[in-house]
Design goal:
The protein is built from 15 helices and 14 strands. The chain is α+β, with helices and mostly antiparallel strands. The protein folds into 3 domains: 254 residues, Up-down Bundle (Rhopdopsin 7-helix transmembrane proteins), CATH 1.20.1070; 129 residues, Jelly Rolls; 143 residues, Alpha-Beta Plaits. The strands form 3 sheets. The protein has a 6-stranded antiparallel sheet with strand order 3-2-4-9-6-7. Helix 4 packs antiparallel against helix 5. The longest helix is centred in the last third of the chain and has 45 residues. The two termini are 55 Å apart.
């Protein structure tokens, strides 16, 4: 049964994710009215004093004898093709850790990052939309870049030529998978976080879901900033800072989630890994903001941290599948975390090895990392559908069992166990409470004459009257066959005699409507202030004594022997 629920939860989570993707694709997809040309081939390149001809920009690394260094000057130029008349002609180009100046026939038309370069500020990556003159065709375009970072780039995507609005939409179209994945992660993370905070007191072990929600949001922000989608909305250096900030937090989040899933036995060693992993991004940001050591310069520290974290996740994943020492819901989360870390590790290998040694296309790189992130979020949805619903079912079952333990089976009032607990709780309070002891009159003769079913109906009829009179004021309980109890915690402002009179009046109305037998009760009550320095049991005994005195008077008036 649990296996079936797990399969259903997984299929539903996949369906939800596909639906989000379909909606994003439908909302963002547009068809170009004017042509767009990718200008990747035929560039003349100069690196400092070295000249190269007819180079593909996407294979820039093939002409480099060594890595770029801070201060290197790169010129790239070619003649613009004729795409026919297009409104607002422009180029879209993605720079990486460099300044950018664009010249058309020797005249500058765009510049970016020069002031930041002079002040040695972090430049980062950016998407540029460079406006061209209307008579662009046949003109000579030149890009001039100053490398701000060592090894600023090895690969550049060739610029695209087209109409400015359509270039923006083309950029969005080419990143629909990333945008959809990033938005799904971000939105699901926020929704999960709200649900987790909403149920934080209702569901045990919700902490893992809180941190998983934060990680989903973090991954969404990282994915969108890593592929420069946020460049459409925020300043480029800020976007790159968001990218590194969210990137460096991934490993600590993995440790936290792993801790709550696995509950490791060697906590000291695990916490040591976590503390070191958490201190690395803290140290990196101190270096960046206090000492102007750019975020990218400390990236190797994250790479080491990432590899260690991957090994730890692998260890616990293998351990979980061998020993089966975690719950089904925990196994779902463990699988999502494992697949994500595998995708992250593959991405890291590709990044370190570089395009010279690893044949991997941009599309496959996007699919790997975004797919890993999405698998993680799919597992979170499945976890919610399986674990949260299961937890609520358990809580309902527990509530039902608790009700059976503390409720009278015939009247559904509180039973003796519940009333005893309530009496003990009164000893911890300072309020002037009131205890009312009530006993049905004539239950045994009714049982003997009409049978126990009629006697049970008598008891149930009275319980309704009792509930209608006192339920909103305090606890109503049946503590024996014909014995009832009412506990009113804040009774100082109440007229108890009037309430008892209302109860007796309701019984008289029932007697008039259904005269087959007579319904009446004897009652007595006592307040806490009448038994100073004594516990609630003594107050109850006083109320019970007064009830029996009342019962004796009623029987004497009717000439009936009192049943003890």
């Amino acid at each position: 049964m649990l296996h079936k629920k797990r399969v259903i939860a997984t299929l539903l989570s996949i369906l939800i994710t596909i639906t989000i993707f379909t909606l994003c694709h439908h909302a963002l997809s547009v068809h170009n009215e004017y042509p767009i040309a990718l200008l990747d081939e035929g560039w003349d390149v100069t690196i400092n004093t070295e000249n190269y001809h007819d180079i593909k920009m996407s294979e820039f690394y093939t002409v480099m004898d060594s890595k770029l260094k801070h201060g290197d000057v790169i010129f790239m130029s070619k003649t613009l093709p004729d795409l026919g008349p297009i409104p607002f002609p422009a180029l879209s180009f993605r720079s990486r850790y460099t300044t950018l100046e664009c010249f058309v026939d020797g005249e500058i038309v765009y510049k970016y990052g020069l002031d930041m370069y002079r002040e040695d500020k972090f430049i980062g990556k950016a998407i540029h939309f460079i406006t061209l003159p209307n008579d662009y065709a046949g003109k000579h375009i030149t890009f001039k870049m100053l490398a701000e970072e060592n090894d600023a780039f090895t690969v550049l995507d060739g610029p695209s030529l087209g109409s400015t609005p359509e270039l923006r939409m083309d950029f969005i179209n080419s990143h629909i998978f990333i945008i959809s994945a990033g938005m799904a992660l971000f939105v699901f993370g926020i929704v999960f976080l709200m649900l987790s905070l909403l149920f934080v007191t209702a569901i045990p072990d919700i902490a893992v879901q809180l941190y998983s929600s934060l990680m989903c949001t973090n991954l969404g922000a990282w994915l969108l900033s890593y592929y420069n989608v946020l460049s459409l909305f925020v300043h480029a250096p800020l976007e790159t800072q968001i990218e590194y900030f969210t990137l460096y937090l991934i490993v600590p989040y993995c440790y936290i989630i792993l801790y709550y899933i696995q509950k490791p036995e060697k906590k000291r060693l695990f916490f040591l890994f976590f503390i070191i992993s958490s201190m690395i991004p803290f140290f990196q940001f101190i270096l960046h903001f206090s000492f102007n050591i750019h975020l990218r310069a400390t990236l190797p520290m994250y790479h080491v941290d990432c590899v260690v974290g991957f090994i730890v996740v692998i260890y616990y994943t293998v351990k979980s599948f061998i020993k089966r020492n975690i719950s089904e819901a925990g196994m779902i989360q463990m699988t999502g975390l494992f697949i994500f870390t595998v995708a992250e590790f593959i991405h890291l290998i590709v990044y370190i090895v570089g395009p010279q040694k690893a044949q991997i296309t941009s599309a496959s790189a996007k699919a790997t990392i975004a797919g890993g992130c999405l698998f993680f979020v799919i597992c979170q949805i499945a976890y919610y559908l399986l674990y949260v619903t299961k937890t609520f079912a358990q809580r309902q079952e527990h509530a039902s069992l608790s009700r059976l333990a503390y409720a009278d089976g015939l009247t559904n009032l509180a039973n003796r166990a519940k009333s005893d607990k309530a009496l003990l709780d009164l000893n911890k309070k300072d309020t002037d409470y009131c205890i009312i002891s009530i006993d049905l009159n004539g239950l045994k003769p009714i049982n003997d004459k009409f049978g126990h079913l009629t006697g049970d109906k008598y008891i149930k009829d009275f319980s309704k009257v009792l509930t209608n009179t006192f339920e909103e004021l305090g606890l109503c309980a049946r503590i024996g066959g014909d014995e009832f109890l009412v506990i009113i915690e804040n009774a100082s402002d109440l007229d108890i005699d009037a309430l008892i009179g209302r109860m007796n009046s309701a019984l008289n109305v029932m007697n008039a409507l259904y005269p087959e037998y007579h319904r009446s009760v004897a009652s007595g009550y006592a307040y806490k202030h009448e038994c100073p320095d004594k516990d609630s049991h003594e107050v109850y005994l006083l109320a019970d004594q007064r009830m029996y005195e009342n019962k004796r008077r009623m029987h004497e008036e009717l000439g009936i022997a009192l049943r003890v």
